[in-house]
Design brief:
alpha/beta, Collagenase (Catalytic Domain), Neutral endopeptidase, domain 2, 4-stranded mixed beta sheet, 3-stranded mixed beta sheet, 54% helix
Amino acid sequence: MTGVDMTAIDTHANPCQDFYQYACGNWMAQNPIPADQTSWGTANKLVNHNQDVLHGILEAAAAHPAGQDAVTQQVGAYYAACMNTAVIDKAGVHPLQSELDNLNSVSTRPELAAEIARLQVEGVDALFTFGSDQDAKNADSMIAGADQGGLGLPDRDYYTRADPKSVELRRQYRAHIEKMFGLMGDKPAAAAAGARTVLRIETALARASMGNVERRNPNATYHKMPVAQFEALAPAFAWQAYFAGVNAPPLATINAISPGFFRGMNRELQSVSLTDWKTYLRWHLLHNYAAALSQPFVEANFDFFGRTLTGQQAQKPRWKRCVTSTDSHLGEALGQLYVRQAFTPQAKAHMTTLVHNLEQALGQDIASLDWMSPATKQQAMVKLHAIVDKIGYPDKWRDYSSIIISSDNYVTNLRRTNAFEWRRDLAKIGKPVDRGEWEMTPPTVNAYYTPIWNQIVFPAGILQPPFFSATRDDAVNYGAVGLVMGHELTHGFDDQGRQFDAHGNLHDWWTAADAKAFQERAACLVDEYSGFSPLPGVHLNGKLTLGENTADNGGAQVAYRAMQTALAGQPDSKLDGFTRDQRFFIGYAQVWCENTRPESARLRANVDPHSPGRFRVNGVVQNMSQFAAAFHCGPNAPMSAGPKACRVW
């Protein structure tokens, strides 16, 4: 078995004209989007598989709590409470009543700050965000960080764009808020007025927020300052009442990640009445917990944030939502049970070998660059050799034993687990960085690179077909999971990652000439991907997607080089009718086969730093001369790498 999905290939398509259509055309025709999904791809099938595994674990844990170990009992009780819709529906909005009472009693500005603190501790995105933040210029230490927040729509631009689609979406959002207030018992006039108030405040906060492209520059989000200087950004906010409310440790400095936001927040605090702030906070409390309340709230929440915003036609089954919630709130407890069942030591060993091969290939790639000076190459190699690889699951599991989990009160469990994470996060401030921590749970179908830790992380969840199989052709493995690994390694040298040194400090280790050469090559990718259009009238944002596009293109070059080295001694015989190089490229393309709803495609174009599958594939292969050689493409074919092909790494 090679691992190439022969049934996915559209044999009527010409790979040199549209490789994505060739590799995925039949798959797209045969796999319509399920009603409960916003898009559907080969990776989604793996997500579903992992959810089935977790479903079996949680059903057994919930059904037989007696005699189980403490971890199994805990996740079983959490899942059981989530699944107990009879109790949830009977309770209505009552689980939020104590917090609503606290909010109603607010009568002073210090009390408002204390209430915002209480809401944030329980996971509500109220006004701004606060927590621990690794010091980008002293990467071994944790400091406090404060950032923009407090919006209900996915991104600031949803509030500021003037096109008809955006204007209509804001109208629908306001109507949704009004409906939700009505479900809480507000009379129509009060619900409508409340919705207008919320949208007015959120729009002002959005206008004060940094855009997602600007935030890609790590220097633009580093403003470490004494606490008094930070407080002076928004003197109308009762900071000391807030810090006491969140039980913050003693603070010497704070990184004001978005200073302009706090200045704008201050203007709103000075001009917006206390009553209107209470309305705003009431909305965010309800919005945060809506999916955990009774069915009318769940349905109304899905109607806007599912149907309207993403085009999803039906709710996911309750069990899937509860599996996802358990993974989100007790992820490393559930992850322990998942790893026991779904991830073998042999798989970890195989993946470790692949990663090492790819790191060697990236080193060869760096050494061969004709645009980088020896001095910068030397620093790049130091950084590469310092990268830490994490595969499968953490060496030390997170301990959730202090959380009391109820088997019949879902909202209480959410509040307790949110508060646990809040306390755990704030406890890091003033302490050394824990580089053993993970940012994804083991069942996650994804991977990541962190520049401030200089680490690549591959959870067990992604190390399965279509990304990896120990029993299939290695050329396909290198094209699939190998390219994902190369992608994550290249993030260390993309437009963001390249600004951090081997230890994770925000430090310029480039010569001016090399930095200029990098930016010129990166600009090629910006222009190329900005020309891609997932929908009529909608184009990708080449600046927003630059890091991921750089990583896709660089990862492909690195994975291809690693494959050539690892398999150099083996004959290049055809399998399933394809050469080794052809299998490599098909293996890459087929992990990104997908269908996407128009609403979801529009949303992703606005906020997602990743390009859609079609452009992840075609954008890469049209920049690689190896692809044109593998498929015998003529020099003028759309997928051929001509003189305008982009290449950074």
